[in-house]
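Researcher: I need the complex structure. Ligand is uridine-5'-diphosphate-xylopyranose. Inputs:
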Amino acid sequence: MKFEKSILCIGAGYVGGPTMAMIAHKCPDCKVTVVDIDKERIRQWNSDVLPIYEPGLDEIVKATRGRNLFFSTEIEKGIKEAEIIFVSVNTPTKLFGAGAGMAADLQYWEKTARQIKRYADADKIIVEKSTLPVKTALAMERILTSSDNEIHFEVLSNPEFLAEGTAIKDLEEPDRVLIGSKETDRGVRARDELVEIYATWIPRERIVTSNIWSSELSKLVANAFLAQRISSINSVTALCEKTDADVTEVARAVGMDSRVGNKFLKASIGFGGSCFKKDILNLVYLCRQYGLDEVASYWEGVIRINEYQKDRFVLTMLGAMFNTLAGKRVCLFGFAFKADTGDTRESPAISIAKRLIEERAELVISDPKALKNAVKDLEGLDGTVRYMEDPYEASYGCDALAVMTEWGLYKDLDYERVYRSMAQPAFIFDGRNILDHKRLFEIGFNVFPIGKPALTHF
Ligand code: UDX
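Model: Output:
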């Protein structure tokens, strides 16, 4: 079959896979190929069990794979064939050298730029999809145009705002699509070409264009703002616990102001996920590089509160359980960084589990999707950790339950049965405020929510 356009995406991860599946689904005239150096990952994308779990993803991939969506390891062929190349490789926090622990590690991204240059034999539009420090597009362009060949590469920035667990919905009905380009004729033409692809299914007023630096920066700032809201409400939980105020009531009252809005104000043990911390660190590093120390410290505060919140949770457990957790059995309900995903990257459950092990507690970890990752995250730790998917089995004989992830299934358990099977006195620490605290208290539990008065029988 002859396709109108050939699109390539380098990087078959959480962003590249679902985004390309959506483009293939909405634009049957485009041939969409996703390549990755990781053979195993490509094999999974071509199998019945996709490497990531996203509601709705399986259906779209099944409908398009082999028709106009292809997963392959043939990067060279992919580059030659495509007119538009999305770059969606990972840019983790750099772990070595200058900027270690803060700056983005751009080695995979640069390698990709060099590959594109080596194999391309005609003009291409290059679309940055990975979240990158501001001015990376410039570096990309320099690498691509560093020889005397005649090929023209036009670099666009098109950050992805999808959240895990709702990727398909976010891709189908995004709040906005942002495309940054140069203001030159060629830049604008390339931008318009990408706009046309998205306009197949997204109303034009939601497709926003900007200069390329604004686009790169917007992604970092969007994530920093979202994380800041969580740290703001989480900082208030500490105060609520001291003053008998209830954080849910405070969040409701504050969020009803339409200028503030009511979303992303759920108190928790802290934010996790692959983006928030990485992007804020990146923003902080960028500010420091430009000598903007006050701005850097301001954003650093968002991460500091997040660390504080996790530590505070463990200290609450310790204080409530008579200042010793040694030899006590604690069951963690959930390990994923949020519900509806098996992803545990930067999950607050990781640091909480590690802290509990330091206190010599014995852990039993339960999660419907994330146990495989949990095993990897806690590998090599000195301590007793067991993994059980069934929450009844997991909580059996435990001294305490701690909710780490807001999975719906934990709301509907038979807590009378759970209570009867636990050691007494039984404790529940609800790190997500999802349970019916009053009822749990009536059953006999000592209940410690986040940012609300504790309900205890002592
Ligand atoms: C986030 C952004 O939402 C997305 O736009 C960006 O592209 C990538 O980063 P994601 O990491 O998938 O997406 O998850 P998100 O739903 O934003 O949640 C992040 C963390 O914040 C989770 O750990 C979640 O549990 C926590 N959270 C969220 C809260 O603690 N309280 C809230 O009110 C909302």
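Model: Summary of the prediction. The two ends are 74 Å apart (CA to CA).
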